[in-house]
Amino acid sequence: MSTDTEKLLWMYTNMLKIRRFEEKVGEFFAAGKIPGFVHLYIGEEAVATGVCAHLRKDDYITSTHRGHGHLISKGGDLKLMMAELFGKRTGYCKGKGGSMHIADVDLGILGANGIVGGGPPIATGAALAAKYRGTDGVAVCFLGDGASNQGTFHEGVNLASIWKLPAIFVVENNMYGISLPQTRSMRVQDIADRAAAYDIPGFVVDGNDVIAVYEAAGEAIQRARAGEGPALIECKTYRYRGHFEGDPMVYRTREEEEMWRAKDPISRFETKLMEMGVLNEAQAREINERILAQVEEAVRFAEESPWPAPEEVLEDVYTV
Amino acid sequence: MSTDTEKLLWMYTNMLKIRRFEEKVGEFFAAGKIPGFVHLYIGEEAVATGVCAHLRKDDYITSTHRGHGHLISKGGDLKLMMAELFGKRTGYCKGKGGSMHIADVDLGILGANGIVGGGPPIATGAALAAKYRGTDGVAVCFLGDGASNQGTFHEGVNLASIWKLPAIFVVENNMYGISLPQTRSMRVQDIADRAAAYDIPGFVVDGNDVIAVYEAAGEAIQRARAGEGPALIECKTYRYRGHFEGDPMVYRTREEEEMWRAKDPISRFETKLMEMGVLNEAQAREINERILAQVEEAVRFAEESPWPAPEEVLEDVYTV
Amino acid sequence: MRTLTFAQALNEALKQEMRRDPTIYVAGEDVGVYGGIFGVTAGLLQEFGEDRVRDTPITESAIIGSAVGAAAAGLRPVVELMFIDFIGVALDQLYNQAAKMKYMFGGKARLPIVMRTTCGAGMCAAAQHSQSLEAWMMHIPGLKVVVPSTPYDAKGLLITAIRDDNPVVFIEHKMLYGIEGEVPEEPYTIPFGQADVKREGTDVTVVATMAMAHKALTAAEELAKDGISVEVVDPRTLTPLDVETIVNSVKKTHRLVVVHEAVKHGGAGGEIVASVVEEALDYLDAPPKRVAAPFTPVPFSPVLEQVFIPSVEKIVAAVKEVVT
Amino acid sequence: MRTLTFAQALNEALKQEMRRDPTIYVAGEDVGVYGGIFGVTAGLLQEFGEDRVRDTPITESAIIGSAVGAAAAGLRPVVELMFIDFIGVALDQLYNQAAKMKYMFGGKARLPIVMRTTCGAGMCAAAQHSQSLEAWMMHIPGLKVVVPSTPYDAKGLLITAIRDDNPVVFIEHKMLYGIEGEVPEEPYTIPFGQADVKREGTDVTVVATMAMAHKALTAAEELAKDGISVEVVDPRTLTPLDVETIVNSVKKTHRLVVVHEAVKHGGAGGEIVASVVEEALDYLDAPPKRVAAPFTPVPFSPVLEQVFIPSVEKIVAAVKEVVT
Ligand SMILES: Cc1ncc(C[n+]2csc(CCOP(=O)(O)OP(=O)(O)O)c2C)c(N)n1
Ligand SMILES: Cc1ncc(C[n+]2csc(CCOP(=O)(O)OP(=O)(O)O)c2C)c(N)n1
Ligand SMILES: [Mg+2]
Ligand SMILES: [Mg+2]
Predict the structure, then answer these.
(1) B106 touches chain C (CB under 8 A)
(2) Which residues of D touch C263 (CB under 8 A)?
(3) Catalytic residue positions of C?
(4) Is the Cβ pair C126, A114 closer than 8 Å?
(5) pLDDT tens digits, residue range D80-120?
(6) What residue ranges do the domains of chain D occupy?
(7) Which class is domain C196-323?
(8) Which residues in chain B have their CB less than 8 angstroms from residue D29's CB?
(9) In whole angstroms, what is the distance from residue C31 CA to residue C52 CA?
(10) For a tag on chain A, would you pick the N or C end, based on fewer CB atoms within 10 A?
(11) pLDDT (tens digit, 9 = 90+) per residue, A298-313?
């Protein structure tokens, strides 16, 4: 593994950041401070982290309803995110979007998305823009196993394929679309097999191994930057929480959950880094504390921020 | 080849029927007697014929904008079809549908369709009904190469696959979707390769060889009747006419057209049948004349039929 | 009489109809094991089994499209579109296929499909999970559009919908699932195209559907204290629309306020106002008014969402304007 | 002045704008080699090349969706939806994505997208290729909706649309492509939200768009012979809608007829009538009337189609009813 220490530590830190941020979000949702639908990414942190480790500010991503991890990995600001989740005017969307619509176009984040399958065509368009302008920028589309059954997936990937666009489709196969197991939503075992329908490369990786994700994503993104067109990366992973906060989870077993927790992407990577001598206990503690402080700061910012003024409901519909 | 003589002659007759019927339609369109959009199937007759040769009255088909061949092959009445094309009240749809919407639900024909990709989900539903009722009926969905890029194709096939429905998707790859060559609408060479994305069998056949179509369809339909689920059959073929009548055809060469005419499905089959001793010149002439008479009768029926009454515009919206 | 929640009333209607008619099946995302994201299909899988209660992938075009094919082939699908906001990925199968087939085929098709779906704001579910899109549904010849407001109406109208031989869009406002009301145990039907006068009054007619019917009733209570007598008319179905009952009410009250949660521009309120003035212009003593959402997407923040949703206060204010 | 057809005027607008701004690209089915099924994009591929004039597969969700991504990333897509009837397979990308992004993102997005499309009956193209669905488009906050009736308006409004930083749905009635009219050679813009009084009159205001504007003008000619003076107002854009010009006209004429080709129930006419009566009830000397299609899919047969499409005679009859 040739990845340098800085990158390794960034990945470790980033995964922890997602985990701690979302744990806090879960708490505040339970406490009734965060309204609406909240879909947590806990357990899947290696995917967004390993992919976004390759991205530049001028690259694009499209995200999903389960978007916090993508946003954080692409550089999203925790304070602005938390304030948005609270519905405050200082949030990313001035309180208009909430968890499912956080975006930061300046960072190339074209939005979380409440429509399953909304992303693939949009990412294809962002990739088109990068190619049109003659840059080597790429667009990454995150989507779920469930979303890969949506027609828009087929259309977005096909268009990216025939136009040889620098678009990378990252399927986060967490085994369920709400209550429906992947085995009941499609007959293929590996969603990566669907890449063949568009004559593009398909990769299957252990989505709980950030290095495996990093390496596959690296290859796909390098191809895309070199003008060789799109790729599909399937990352097998698992969400620890319910589909959304409040989900009774009648559709899966506690044994299955335990099995996946044993493959936790963060502790596995932590152990690995310690074995490699890249990280020690003290550093780990220090990083964790730094992150906790950032999360606390984000919460404070959110809590202290003002609500939007009622008349703001009318603003931001049109560009004038 | 074990197909019996009767079946062989039915296929020959059916292909000729489609050809002669549509030649007449082309004439009447040019003469301004048939209004609207008319998409002719001439050149592709072997596909509908070879597939429908296996179908019973209680099987279903969904058709397309280029539907005359499917309808005739499933037993559609030439008189009712022609009257419909003329917009007469005696037509299949009382003049309300026209070429793109001819249907005969009693014959299991769930309609031509003006929406490219409209058929796959509908055929899936008809297959579901057959299975739900415990019959061994099947549903065949005809669609074009262009339609296989539509999201509804992906969704319809996937649903049929996971529910193991008796649905057969027959892709009529005539190399173009209006002006766009198949090579520019997808990167796969064989659309049948897309079957793998749903873990169902995919067949590639020479769509201008009615026996090849017949055999592949036989296998797929038998599987479906036996409860083994859907299949995808790609038939490589070519339309002789423009996309619709009136198309200037700026997008293809006369050489290409000539090449395909040399592989004409009807004359090839005629030669073969004669070689086999199943057909002779006299019989062929007799069949041809019988068909011409039927077509003439259909024209007469259409021409002599009354127009719908103006107030009929309001009827047939709702079942009461 | 026994009371049920709106969700329970719907659930009972589904169960009773499925027991009666084996050609009815239910399909949609999470309708089986999960029992429906709002619990409306709870217990169906257990009672009727996997053939009749079908969990689908996320594939709305195929959910609705397969219902079209199955219905044309003789079944009676009741499919769930989890949120009406998602209709954009599947609308073709509803309006170009289901709604038009009978007509396009010259009358020779029967499409007994019910598409149940949820609409409305109030849960901070934001712009893509809170819309009220009934006006789009109204504008589709061949469809019927049902917009119940009470548990009683919900059950009776759903049974009517299931027995109807036409495609029906059945819209359930998500903030109503928990409300309670009296519901008879036996199956019963409520005819489409019959508005219900939810409260009689003499000074002003307020036409309101779904969640807004309740707000209109609350407003009516408040206005009664000021001596203003409000008649609240709930159309219950938008196609067919019972213009007659509304017009008769206006002929009595001489004033009209129409309330809906959808944005005003291009909403169902325009149709209702226009239908009334075409028939009863001379009866109106004041310009009609519409109370509806502003022309914006639905905002997330509770503060903004509550400004977006037409409030009792806004209805009260509108009524006061038209009666003075 | 030089005359052009409606299609040529649109073609000229596209060419002039593409010359001005290299971030504009055109995409859609058969827009390149074929030049557009109605010829509107003819010659574009030859002048601007394959990068800027992109033939797409049959994939409307991806055509519109990729425009959303490309626009968010700084380009100015002008995409073609071959028939507005096909919007049902792709509507999500238009209303949940393009139209809402700016708002959902708290203002921080810019979506300069034009979706050109055709509507309308008259070619015997039947139920799935003849619809008028502008009312759906009106009901989407975040979109602008353009409905031109003349070559002059077509060019000016299309240039405005392309320069607008918001998603614009630009609807071209297919029976208008061949009509001719004077069109300046240089590029010019027509502001959105400004209705055009196509004919002045004093007895009745007829509001009509697209093909119906022409029928209204013909009806006005005929009615003039009977001494009835008709003012024809063409809103030109439905969002924003110039209620003021319409209301001012009604304040002068005291009578209103609204004409559109879409089916009446849930159509744009309801919005227009309601907007007028809310502001000018007391000015109306007769109930307003709507002339629109019956509540049916569009039939194929020329005989039936001509009954379906609102005719000059029906407009004349409606005007006579309101003036007597
Ligand atoms: C078009 C559409 N259909 C349905 C939904 C409801 N829904 C939200 S998330 C979800 C499951 C998504 O599954 P998957 O793509 O695997 O992502 P995951 O939640 O597992 O991350 C569903 C069905 C939606 N938001 N949009
Ligand atoms: C949803 C939709 N998009 C576009 C069209 C316009 N259209 C009609 S036929 C056609 C080409 C279809 O190509 P293919 O599926 O290969 O069938 P073919 O015409 O070659 O038989 C197109 C683009 C349509 N009718 N419906
Ligand atoms: Mg999943
Ligand atoms: Mg083709």
Answers:
(1) yes
(2) 139, 141
(3) 129
(4) yes
(5) 999 999 999 999 999 999 999 999 999 999 999 999 999 99
(6) 3-182, 196-323
(7) alpha beta
(8) 177-178, 180
(9) 11
(10) C
(11) 999 999 999 999 999 9
B178 Cβ below 6 A of ligand 2: yes
* Residue C122 CA, ligand 3 centroid: distance in Å: 27
Q: How far apart are CA D87 and CA D95, in angstroms?
A: 11
C-alpha D78/C-alpha D71 separation (Å) is 10
- Do C3-182 and C196-323 share a fold? yes
Closest CA to C48 of C67, C20, C72: C20
CA distance D104 to chain A (A): 4
Residue D30 Cα: closest atom of ligand 2: 23
Distance A228 CA to ligand 3 centre (A): 28
Which ligand 1 atom sits closest to the C-alpha of A118? 1
Fold classification of D3-182 is Rossmann fold (3.40.50)
Q: For ligand 2, say whether the CB of B87 is within 6 Å of any of its atoms.
A: no
Contacts of A124 in chain D (CB under 8 A): 62, 65-66, 69
Distance of CA A225 to the CA centre of its chain: 21
Domains, chain A, in order of start with CATH, read 5-302 (3.40.50.970)
Nearest beta carbon to residue B87 from set D86, D301, D307: D301
Query: Which A residues in the span 33-62 are in contact with D, Cβ-Cβ below 8 Å?
Result: 60, 62
DSSP-assigned states of every residue in C240-302? TT-HHHHHHHHHHH--EEEEEEEESTTSHHHHHHHHHHHHHGGG-SS--EEEEE-SSPPPSSH
The one-digit pLDDT tens for each residue of chain C (324 residues) are 899 999 999 999 999 999 999 999 999 999 999 999 999 999 999 999 999 999 999 999 999 999 999 999 999 999 999 999 999 999 999 999 999 999 999 999 999 999 999 999 999 999 999 999 999 999 999 999 999 999 999 999 999 999 999 999 999 999 999 999 999 999 999 999 999 999 999 999 999 999 999 999 999 999 999 999 999 999 999 999 999 999 999 999 999 999 999 999 999 999 999 999 999 999 999 999 999 999 999 999 999 999 999 999 999 999 999 998
- B181 and chain D in contact, CB less than 8 A: no
Contacts of A150 in chain C (CB under 8 A): 58-59, 89
Start-to-end C-alpha separation, chain D: 41
DSSP-derived secondary structure letter, C176: G
Q: Is the pLDDT of residue B1 over 70?
A: no
pTM reported for the whole predicted model? 0.98
Choose which residue among A38, A64, A116, A194 to substitute to test ligand 1 binding: the one with the highest number of ligand atoms within 8 A of its C-beta.
A116
Longest dimension (CA), chain C: 60
Distance CA D249, CA D200 (A): 9
Chain A interface includes C296 (CB < 8 A): yes
User: How close is the Cα of B148 to the center of ligand 4, in Å?
Assistant: 9
Query: Nearest CA of chain C to the CA of B129: how many Å?
Result: 5
Other CB atoms within 10 Å distance of the CB of residue D61: 31
- Annotated catalytic residue B239: yes
ipTM of the complex: 0.98
Produce one character per residue of A286-320: b if its CB has 16 or more CB atoms within 10 Å, e if not. Answer: ebbeebbebbeebbebbeebebbeeebbeebbbee
Rounded to whole angstroms, the Cα distance separating C286 from D278 reads 9
Q: How far apart are the first and last CA of chain B?
A: 51
